[in-house]
């Protein structure tokens, strides 16, 4: 009689989930050790070339890089862990025994999918609490060529803002909102596609109806004349947040912080498509672990003695790697604005969910 429960017995489910998790973690550990060693060999010369850097800085780099490697290669590890688990069960005829007991293909895969849901949840929390902070610190450190970083001051350098046809450059930005202060301001005023005026000011601050500039020098392109003034109020509609939010990196922010930054940018009239794609990918990315047992499930079935086990394992691996290729392509298209953010983040997940289900049903059910 066919087993009508979604999961097999509790003992079988625990046995399969344990094999799956342990093998996935073993593959992840091997990948991270190898990749971290190769990466450190490439970066150690740059780190040690800075006067004052030593072994402690190498270990600091490793501590910041390992969370990125774990986050990036965990789905690959789940894919390989699934293939190893299912191929081993098939080779030992354990799958045949389960099917002879009336357990369907979906019931065999179900414990692995349930375990991968837990892995996806832990991955999301790991990215939110650890990976984003490590990414922000490592990016800042690498941009400084691994030199000692000063304490965070909230100061931004060389910020460009476009408002209509005009372009504003602030070489130094400090503060937020009404307390925003600009230093080394250059305003390029354009009309009909041509440059009309260049305004250089020592400092700037937001006031009602525009920006107050101090120590101003104005160059008029048509006449070639220069005028100076101690104070000029520029009736410009650029918001203060456009300067303080000029650099937003989705990889350096957790979900809620990035969502708030996107809302602020939308209020300021800034394009947010790539950031929205990155926001939703923070959810769809960890969930890719749930797909791996389904895509690699084909390796569990078919008689091992038929000689097709290797072919089935290769097919499962090909489906898994095809997902990562399509996912990266869709996210790149979302960053370029060719795909809507939701489509770029979620379309690959649902597409391969349907493909994996179709392959499993067609071959086994």
Give me some keywords for this one:
6-stranded antiparallel beta sheet, 9 helices, 59% helix, elongated, 365 residues, 2 domains, LPS export ABC transporter permease LptG, alpha+beta, LptG/LptF_permease, LptG
Question: How would you describe this structure to a colleague?
Answer:
With 365 residues, the protein is of the alpha+beta class. The chain folds into 2 domains: 10-148 and 275-364, no CATH class; 156-244, no CATH class. Helix content is 59%, strand content 17%. The protein contains 9 helices and 6 strands; from the N terminus they run H-H-H-H-E-E-E-E-E-E-H-H-H-H-H. It has helices at 10-48, 55-91, 94-100, 105-143, 241-244, 255-267, 273-296, 309-336, 341-364, and strands at 156-163, 166-174, 181-191, 194-207, 210-220, 225-234. A 6-stranded antiparallel beta sheet has the order 1-2-3-4-5-6. The chain is elongated, with a radius of gyration of 28 Å. It starts with 9 loop residues before the first helix and ends with a helix. The mean pLDDT is 84. Its main location: membrane. Pfam families: LptF_LptG.
Radius of gyration, Cα only, in angstroms? 28 Å
pLDDT < 50 runs, ≥5 residues:
none
Q: Work out the strand percent.
A: 15-25%
Mean pLDDT over the full residue set: 84
Number of strands: 6
How much helix, percentage-wise, in residues?
55-70%
Distance between the termini: 16 Å
Helical/strand content category: alpha+beta
Q: What general form does the structure show?
A: elongated
């Amino acid at each position: 009689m066919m087993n009508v429960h979604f999961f097999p017995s509790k003992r079988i489910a625990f046995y399969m989930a344990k094999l799956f998790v342990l093998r996935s973690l073993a593959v992840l550990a091997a990948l991270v050790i190898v990749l971290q060693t190769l990466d450190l060999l490439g970066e150690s010369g740059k780190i040690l070339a800075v006067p004052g850097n030593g072994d402690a800085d190498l270990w600091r780099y490793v501590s910041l890089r390992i969370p990125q490697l774990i986050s990036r290669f965990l789905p690959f590890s789940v894919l390989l862990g699934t293939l190893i688990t299912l191929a081993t069960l098939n080779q030992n005829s354990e799958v045949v025994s389960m099917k002879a007991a009336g357990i369907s293909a979906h019931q065999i895969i179900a414990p692995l999918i349930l375990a991968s849901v837990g892995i996806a949840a832990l991955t999301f929390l790991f990215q939110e609490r650890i990976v984003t902070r490590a990414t922000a610190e490592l990016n800042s450190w690498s941009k400084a060529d691994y030199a000692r970083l000063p304490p965070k001051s909230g100061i931004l350098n060389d910020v460009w803002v476009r408002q209509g046809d005009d372009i504003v450059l602030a070489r130094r930005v400090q503060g937020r909102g009404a307390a925003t202060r600009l230093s080394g301001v250059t305003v390029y005023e354009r009309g009909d596609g041509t440059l009309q005026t260049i305004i250089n000011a020592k400092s700037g601050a937001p006031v009602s109806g525009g920006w107050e500039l101090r120590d101003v020098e104005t160059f008029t392109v048509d006449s070639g004349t220069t005028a100076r003034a101690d104070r000029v109020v520029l009736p410009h509609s650029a918001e203060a947040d456009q300067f303080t939010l000029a650099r937003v990196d989705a990889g350096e922010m957790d979900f809620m912080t990035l969502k708030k930054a996107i809302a602020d940018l939308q209020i300021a009239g800034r394009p947010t498509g790539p950031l929205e794609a990155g926001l939703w990918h923070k959810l769809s990315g960890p969930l890719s672990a749930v797909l791996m047992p389904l895509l690699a499930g084909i390796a569990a079935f078919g008689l091992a003695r038929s000689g097709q086990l290797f072919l089935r394992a290769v097919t499962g691996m090909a489906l898994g790697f095809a997902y990562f290729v399509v996912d990266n392509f869709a996210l790149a298209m979302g960053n370029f604005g060719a795909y809507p953010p939701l489509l770029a983040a979620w379309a690959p997940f649902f597409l391969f969910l349907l493909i994996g289900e179709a392959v499993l049903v067609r071959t086994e059910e």
